[in-house]
Amino acid sequence: MRKILAAFFVIMTLSSLLQAESGKKVFETYCWGCHHQTAVAFGPSFAEIASKRNADEIRAMITDPASVSKAFGYKRNAMPAFKLSEEELKAITDYILSFKSAKPENEEPNKMKIVPKAYPNIAKNKEVK
Q1: What is the C-alpha separation between 109 and 112, in angstroms, rounded?
Q2: Residue 21 near residue 29 (C-beta atoms within 8 A)
Q3: What is the CATH number of domain 2-97?
Q4: Distance (Å, rounded) from C-alpha 86 to C-alpha 106?
Q5: Where do the structural domains in the chain lie, given as residue ranges?
Q6: Its pTM surpasses 0.90
Q7: What are the angstrom distances between the C-alpha of 18 and each of 55, 65, 123?
Q8: Backbone angles phi, psi at 77, to 5 degrees
Q9: What span, in angstroms and rounded, lies between the C-alpha atoms of 126 and 129?
Q10: Can you give the pLDDT of all 129 residues of the chain as single tens digits?
Q11: What pLDDT digit, counting tens, does each position of 40-63 carry?
């Protein structure tokens, strides 16, 4: 089953490399099945990732998730490694970081934060209990 799944990701990666031109396009091509911009999905939302990781950590997680997961102390990793062009990697990293909310130091803690518009109709925000 793992070989079939790996083959699927390789085929999808190879066929989609030519189509990815921007961060949103890279997201739509590779990421949306497991990640959403501001909602909980199989993987963490881009807003959550952007609030915890810098550009180098994001790039490393995309290209070598097994090693980075170990370095972060995660017990397991479900994310496949992606072989993206330098332009695609920069585009998706910048796109993920665009979901980082800018919080002024004097902001009230319960004040609603504004995040970039999420991909329409893919997922609804879920509350984590």
Answers
A1: 9
A2: no
A3: 1.10.760.10
A4: 38
A5: 2-97
A6: no
A7: 23, 23, 27
A8: -140, 130
A9: 9
A10: 777 767 666 555 544 343 335 788 888 888 988 988 888 788 899 999 999 999 999 999 999 999 999 998 988 888 999 999 999 999 999 999 998 885 544 444 444 444 445 444 444 444 444
A11: 788 899 999 999 999 999 999 999
Cβ atoms of residues 84 and 17 within 8 Å: yes
The pLDDT of residue 14: 45
Hey, is 89 helix, strand or coil? Answer: helix
CB contact at 8 A, 36 and 123? yes
The residue type of 128 is: V
Residue 81 contacts residue 64 (beta carbons within 8 Å): yes
Q: Give per-residue burial for 6-19: e unless 16+ CB within 10 Å, then b.
A: eeeeeeebeebbee
Q: What is the largest CA-CA distance in the chain?
A: 51
- Separation of alpha carbons 63 and 60, rounded Å: 5
What one-letter code names the amino acid at 94? D
Sequence-separated (6 or more) residues with CB below 8 Å from residue 75? none
Amino acid sitting at position 35: H
Tokens of residue 100, six digits: 């980082």
